[in-house]
């Protein structure tokens, strides 16, 4: 969530090793979130070696089997193994989360720095961002997906466009706050060139809050991907994603709820892990906020 | 004050203009021929030509834009490609269930979240506080449709207390109307409640640390009076802001919730339009939802003066 007032935080000094350890002990959420997310990433990378079968393999004789020793999470109406599909689905979710986090950070940084330093660009770009922000993210992504062919790349692009305004607003806010600080004033007074101020003084200080925002963006992107797939406007049906598996189990929910249950649980657990990590990072960056939020 | 209200209303014009230009530009900037994509893989050239004409894609861009804006200003959102009915008519037909669900969610969320947030801040560090924080992290993490299915499993499949899906208008009596609304409302309210509770707690913690709270306590006011009369009143502005911003989450959630519970509202209309790639409907729905969002946030802005008399314009 980007709505938390953690938006503007100035970088802490690089902590010493002991301090990092103490911080982790006091904030176990970073460890819990990190481990959970790490496990999910390992599952995605090593999906073929985790007792899975071809997630697309049809087996008409074994349709709608309940979870058993042979099919850990059961099978769907086409006899596909839900366990394999769920594990492979982690690849889609994590790819989308990571790609959107990286691309929104890059784009948001560029737009935010420009608007923080150029008045006319600020007036123009921020009006556009205000407009985009008044369209709920899922609807922007739906509109984009309705006009492009379904592919993973287009899903990532659509969610990036929906999420960029928030990130650029964050960067702009940080830049505007930093510009007023004495060390920037000192740099200006000592005749430092504008581009050097931007690179050496402003940019590094925007990174900590951007990192926190990137985790929240990744979580939000994974939810939007699942929603898009669930609504039939996301990842193409031939790729097993958590949203796709759930939408396939939708009409069968009353007879075979496990089809929806497992991918839903994996999605929730992954988003939870990222949110815990994000909250922990936010507290680490700005201890003043830690008490409050 | 009046001047401020007028200025604030005028400020929504550029925002809505950006939204309008965006949904228009999307159709024309998207790679490839939108008519071919809308028509689908099995379309004949005649189908594509028909869609070209229906969307007015055969005319020069500036003519298309001018006539589109002209129609928009007259409340005309175009014609659905699939059903050939005016989009405004289709939206009007589906508005009821969505408005009912949104209002019930707003009421439930705000009346649950604000007391929870106040309680968590008052008992900061206690188990109540921890429980509220755990709830709020979970609320952000469990997507609305996953929660919806958990509720369906518990209350409709397992216990058979509530109808699995569907919607009953008020004309069918208050009982069925509410029974159909309970689960969708709970599913949708989760993330919104989490958001508002978190902000209430943070804002209350700020206020509770102020000197005038200590003064109020020192002169022997009851806790109730200190919390509600002094603290919550001063903490209200950020809470109102987040209620307004959170409406975006609510709108996104409505589309999904209506799909899970087969509620014939705007969300369902959106999903049908996606499957048929009926772009005029999607365009119309985005404009309506964004206008609603902008309007609600306008009202929130104007409410600041009521919540905090120090704010004058």
Describe this protein's structure.
The complex is a heterodimer of chains A (293) and B (313). With 293 residues, chain A is mainly α. Chain A has a single domain (21-292), classed as MetI-like (MetI-like fold), CATH 1.10.3720. Chain A is 70% helix and 0% strand. Chain A has 11 helices and no strands. In chain A, helix 7 packs across helix 8. The longest helix of chain A has 38 residues, at 194-231. Chain A starts with 16 loop residues before the first helix and ends with a helix. The model of chain A is unreliable at 1-12 (pLDDT under 50). Chain B is mainly α. Chain B folds into 2 domains: 2-73, no CATH class; 90-307, MetI-like (MetI-like fold, Orthogonal Bundle). Chain B contains 12 helices and no strands. In chain B, helix 1 (2-29) runs antiparallel to helix 12 (279-307), helix 5 (87-122) runs parallel beside helix 12 (279-307) and helix 10 packs antiparallel against helix 12 (279-307). Chain B starts with a helix and ends in a 6-residue tail after the last helix. The model of chain B has no long low-confidence stretch (mean pLDDT 88). The chains are: A mainly alpha (293), B mainly alpha (313). The interface between A and B is large, with 52 and 66 residues.
């Amino acid at each position: 969530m980007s709505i938390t007032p953690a938006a503007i935080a100035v970088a802490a000094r690089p902590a010493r090793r002991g301090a990092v350890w103490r911080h982790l002990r006091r904030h176990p959420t970073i460890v819990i979130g990190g481990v959970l997310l790490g496990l999910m990433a390992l599952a995605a990378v090593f999906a073929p070696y985790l007792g899975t079968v071809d997630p697309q393999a049809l087996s008409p004789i074994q349709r709608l089997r309940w979870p058993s020793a042979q099919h850990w999470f059961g099978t769907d109406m086409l006899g596909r193994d839900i366990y394999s599909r769920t594990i492979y689905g982690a690849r889609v979710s994590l790819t989308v989360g990571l790609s959107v986090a990286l691309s929104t950070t890059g784009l948001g940084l560029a737009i935010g720095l420009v608007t923080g330093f150029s008045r006319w660009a600020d007036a123009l770009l921020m009006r556009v961002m205000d407009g985009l922000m008044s369209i709920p993210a899922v609807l922007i992504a739906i509109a984009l997906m309705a006009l492009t062919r379904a592919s993973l790349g287009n899903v990532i692009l659509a969610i990036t466009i929906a999420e960029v305004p928030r990130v650029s607003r964050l960067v702009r806010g940080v830049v505007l706050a930093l510009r007023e600080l004495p060390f920037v004033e000192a740099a200006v007074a000592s005749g430092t060139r504008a581009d050097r101020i931007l690179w050496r003084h402003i940019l590094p200080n925007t990174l900590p809050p951007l990192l926190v925002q990137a985790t929240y963006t990744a979580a939000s992107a994974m939810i939007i991907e699942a929603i898009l797939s669930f609504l039939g406007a996301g990842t193409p049906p031939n790729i097993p994603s958590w949203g796709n598996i759930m939408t396939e189990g939708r009409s069968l929910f009353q007879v075979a709820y496990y089809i929806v249950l497992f991918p839903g649980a994996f999605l929730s657990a992954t988003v939870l892990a990222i949110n815990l990590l994000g909250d922990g990072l936010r507290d680490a960056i700005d201890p003043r906020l830690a008490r409050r939020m | 004050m009046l001047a401020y209200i007028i200025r604030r209303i005028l400020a929504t014009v550029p925002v809505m203009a950006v939204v309008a230009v965006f949904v228009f530009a999307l159709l024309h900037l998207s790679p490839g021929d939108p008519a071919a994509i809308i028509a689908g893989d099995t379309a004949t050239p005649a189908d594509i030509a028909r869609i070209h004409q229906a969307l007015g894609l055969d005319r020069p861009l500036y003519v298309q834009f001018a006539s589109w804006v002209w129609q928009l200003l007259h409340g005309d959102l175009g014609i659905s490609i699939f059903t050939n009915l005016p989009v405004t008519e289709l939206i009007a037909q589906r508005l009821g269930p969505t408005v009912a669900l949104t209002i019930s969610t707003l009421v439930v969320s705000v009346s649950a979240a604000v007391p929870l947030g106040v309680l968590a801040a008052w008992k900061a560090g206690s188990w109540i506080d921890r429980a509220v924080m755990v709830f709020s992290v979970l609320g952000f993490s469990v997507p609305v449709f996953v929660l919806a299915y958990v509720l369906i499993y518990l209350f409709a499949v397992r216990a058979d207390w509530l109808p699995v899906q569907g919607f009953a208008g008020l004309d069918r009596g208050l009982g069925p109307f509410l029974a159909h609304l309970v689960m969708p409302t709970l599913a949708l309210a989760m993330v919104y409640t989490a958001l508002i509770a978190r902000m209430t707690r943070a804002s209350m913690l700020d206020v509770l640390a102020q000197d005038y709270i200590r003064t109020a306590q020192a002169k022997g006011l009851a806790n109730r009076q200190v919390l509600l009369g002094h603290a919550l009143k001063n903490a209200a502005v950020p809470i109102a802001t987040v209620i307004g911003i959170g409406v975006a989450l609510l709108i996104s959630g409505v589309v999904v919730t209506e799909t899970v519970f087969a509620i014939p509202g705007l969300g369902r209309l959106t999903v049908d339009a996606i499957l048929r790639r009926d772009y005029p409907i999607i365009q119309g729905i985005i404009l309506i939802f964004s206008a609603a969002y902008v309007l609600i946030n306008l009202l929130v802005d104007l409410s600041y003066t009521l919540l905090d008399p120090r704010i004058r314009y």
